[in-house]
Amino acid sequence: MCGRLNISDDPFVTKLLSNLGVGNSKKTMRYSRMMRATNVISIVREKNRKRQLDDAHWWLLQEPTEIGFKPSKYTSFNTRYDKLNTPRSAGFTAYRETRCIIVAKGFGETEGKGVNARYYDFHAKQGAIALGGLYRQWFHPNNQESILSCSVITLPPHEKLKPYHTKASPLILPQGDDTIDAWLDSSNQHTEMFADLLNPHVPCDLSVQEINKPSLFVPIGPLLSIEKD
After folding, report:
1. pTM, full prediction
2. pLDDT over 80 (residue 23)
3. What is the DSSP track for the chain?
4. Short-list 163, 155, 122, 141, CA closest to 62
5. Cβ(177)–Cβ(193) under 8 Å?
6. For residues 18 and 32, what is the distance between their CA atoms, to the nearest angstrom?
7. Whether residue 24 has pLDDT greater than 80
8. Residue 182 is part of which domain span?
9. pLDDT beyond 80 at 141
10. What is the phi/psi pair of residue 170, to 5°?
11. Is residue 26 a part of any domain in this protein?
12. For position 63, which CATH number holds?
């Protein structure tokens, strides 16, 4: 998955945040048509049995500087599904103790490199998406400043997405059942119950369109539909 998210101020995004039990999201949610990796984004997490919206740096591994933090040299805006159960990996403990949700309207993917790169925009047709993510908390050794960081879990490429991106697909959590409650339950370390989630799955109808470049969003291809599984 590429490091781009569409977190527009969209009615469906607001509705999903409300359904997740996050109050006053309009005042605290970080909205942007294009969030890039390393940007500060909003995550939904559970703390002391209550759900809240918090800022998090979209790069799971952070390094302290003299006055703050910076992204680690190790790429970590995504966490691969096959590393979640590997002890000592960046996401091992977070997968068990500090899972979160990133609410978005859609996401971007890049296929190819350099002059051959092609850019695609995906968005939920009649709703918003709940991306399964991880977060970590960091304390600065000098001033005890505290920040949160996060990543999006990525899965093998989904057959329906392969025409647009052949490397990976994001973990999109299903809505309307008890999956999200279990995912956000900070006391739930029974990750074996999430095994099926780590298989590629499209739980909602998506639209996809080729664009000229991520910073401009100018469509250069037809608007296509991807039906949910």
Report:
1. 0.96
2. no
3. --SEEEE---HHHHHHHHHTT-TTHHHH---EEEEETTSEEEEEEEETTEEEEEEEES-S-EEE-SSSEEE-SS--SEEEGGGTTSTTSTTHHHHHH-EEEEEESEEEEEES-GGG-EEEEEEESSS-EEEEEEEEEEE-TTT--EEEEEEEEEESPPTTTTTT-SS-EE-BPP-SSSHHHHHH-TT---GGGGGGGGS----S-EEEEEES-TTT--B-S--EEE---
4. 141
5. no
6. 19
7. no
8. 4-110+127-203
9. yes
10. -80, 155
11. yes
12. 3.90.1680.10
CB atoms within 10 A of CB 229: 12
Residue 47 has pLDDT above 90, yes or no: yes
Number of domains comprising the chain: 1
Q: Is the pLDDT of residue 1 over 80?
A: no
Question: Between vectors from CA 190 to CA 62 and to CA 196, what angle results, nearest 5°?
Answer: 90
Written as six digits, the tokens of 173 are 């959590």
Q: Per the domain annotation, does 135 fall within a domain?
A: yes
Please count the other Cβ atoms lying within 10 Å of the Cβ belonging to residue 42. Answer: 23
- The whole-number pLDDT of residue 26 equals 79
Residue 74 lies in a domain: yes
Residue 218 lies in a domain: no
Determine contact, residues 44/53, Cβ cutoff 8 Å: yes
What letters, b where the CB count within 10 A reaches 16 and e where it falls short, cover 177-215? eebbebbbebebeebeebeebbebbbbbebebbbbeebe
